[in-house]
What we know:
Elements: E1 2-7, H1 16-25, E2 30-33, H2 63-72, E3 78-85, H3 91-104, E4 109-114, H4 119-124, H5 132-148, E5 152-155, E6 160-164, E7 178-181, H6 185-194, E8 197-199, H7 208-221, E9 230-236, H8 240-249, E10 253-258, H9 263-273
Parallel strand pairs: 1-2, 1-10, 2-3, 3-4, 4-7, 7-8, 8-9, 9-10
Antiparallel strand pairs: 5-6
Amino acid sequence: MEVGVLIFATDYSIRTDELAIALEERGFDALFLPEHTHIPASRISPWPGGADLPKDYWHTHDPFVALAYAAAVTKNLKLGTGICLLAQREAIVTAKSVASLDMMSNGRFIFGIGGGWNVEEMNDHGVEYKTRFAQMREQVLAMKALWTEEDAAYHGEYVNFDASWAYPKPVQKPHAPVILGGETDYTLRRVVDYCDGWLPRARNGFDAAANMARLKNFADEAGRDVSELSVSVFGAPADAGVLAGYAEAGINRALLTLPSAPRDEIMGLLDKYAPLTA
């Protein structure tokens, strides 16, 4: 099992290129970045993580720009969005960003996506909360067509375009893996329907073996081979015993959480966590 990190890359935290170099030097597998385009000041939608929303959420860099900086200074580090709020993005433009970053990184991009929780943020993008997952499914299917077909077309309720040429194509074949965040049964049905992997959060006593069994059950129901699906645990604890259990259960990657902090604090944490990558 590989060990990577996730961080809200902000205007006050360590530079992403400096972090990427340090991660690769210490043997970490991947760097994942969350995103929020903005946070409406009304703050009507409750944050699922508690009462007070951390300021990280409205200070994030665009993940594709930040990961491009990370790609430019590394050779092996995987680069992921965790998560990209896909429904808030236009499908054709996002497909271009994914393919470009995958090509420029020589096939190191992982496209982590999710539905999101902030209703006001979505509404500002013209997205309805209740239909965000239906929209996201169409976006993924349309993007896969753009990544893999010469004359790509898609006709749906939310995404609609006639035969088109779109380059570059991703280096990874058939395309950069699409992995979906969430923990519900609905999430797992979506994973086996149109994704390439699962990105569950390590919360509420995440049981690795039980959750891998859940994924297999849904894959079997859909007639899909579960071995085709990667599993990366988002926000895994920096605990060697827990990570060993993840590995035994067949999880592919654990992502440790770094705070949005300056360089010196982050470097100290990386040195502390580095033995977990062995």
